[in-house]
Design a protein that fits this description.
single chain, seven-stranded mixed sheet, 8 helices
Length: 246
């Protein structure tokens, strides 16, 4: 198959897994819906990861304060990395906003923040905090306005049709976008960590269609957004991309 980013030739490096010979992008051909998988399976209460987080939820399944406290360090780091962009933005749209933890911390910059999330429990908490929260797949979302800044952390890797996602992004973005995506290894010399992964259809899928490289992520946004920052993300190994709409 050809690379979905740059259309060059790819090599199958594991079953149903292809790496581009040019930009290095890794595409994992999962035979299912990755977003639904991540929402319903990877976050299911019976999943090993969920069991570690049980104290972050009340008996009725609602989020408690421990949920936000557990993510405070990550969110603080994210804010520090993008504070120069946040400073002059009047409106923010957060895609894949979870329970509104990041949105809470961005309130010191503007009160005009809207969120988009799929999971019922997280949507309910985000709304409880007072945020306008749209419960929708982003590709099915019908926006009625544009925002000065669109943030999107650890979502893009779950989206099979990247061009459709960027087309929709153009409908909500008026100026800056911030993306963080996980990578298989650190490209910035800040972490020795490498992600372990298996073929996507053998029962050990992590919900990711994509693993980006610096080149593949830059190529994806080429012609739509000018790169203002590309550096190591908070949840390393990861890439943080900040772009200004062309």
């Amino acid at each position: 198959m050809n690379c979905i980013i740059c259309s060059n030739n790819t090599k199958e490096i594991k079953k149903d897994t292809h790496r581009c010979n040019s930009c290095g992008h890794v595409f994992r051909d999962f035979q299912g819906d990755s977003i639904e998988f991540h929402k319903e399976t990877y976050r299911n209460k019976n999943h090993q990861k969920w069991k570690k987080d049980q104290n972050e939820f009340n008996e009725d399944g609602s989020v408690n304060g421990r949920f936000h406290e557990a993510r405070k360090g990550i969110v603080t780091s994210r804010i520090n990395k993008i504070s120069h962009v946040l400073a002059d933005r009047r409106s923010i749209f957060d895609i894949g906003s979870g329970a509104g933890t990041l949105a809470m911390h961005m309130q010191s910059f503007t009160s005009d923040i809207e969120c988009l999330e799929l999971a019922d429990t997280l949507v309910n908490e985000s709304r409880r905090l007072g945020f306008t929260t749209h419960q929708s797949d982003f590709l099915e979302f019908v926006p009625n306005r544009r925002f000065d800044l669109v943030t999107c952390y650890h979502v893009l890797e779950h989206v099979k049709d990247l061009n459709a996602f960027l087309d929709k992004l153009d409908e909500v973005s008026s100026e800056y976008v911030v993306f963080e995506v996980p990578t298989l290894k650190c490209y910035f010399g800040t972490s020795p960590k490498e992600r372990r992964w298996e073929p996507p259809n053998n029962g050990h899928y992590d919900g990711h269609y994509h693993y980006f490289t610096i080149k593949s992520l830059a190529t994806l946004f080429m012609g739509r957004y000018e790169i203002t920052t590309i550096e190591s993300g908070t949840q390393s190994p990861a890439i943080l991309f900040i772009g200004k709409k062309i």
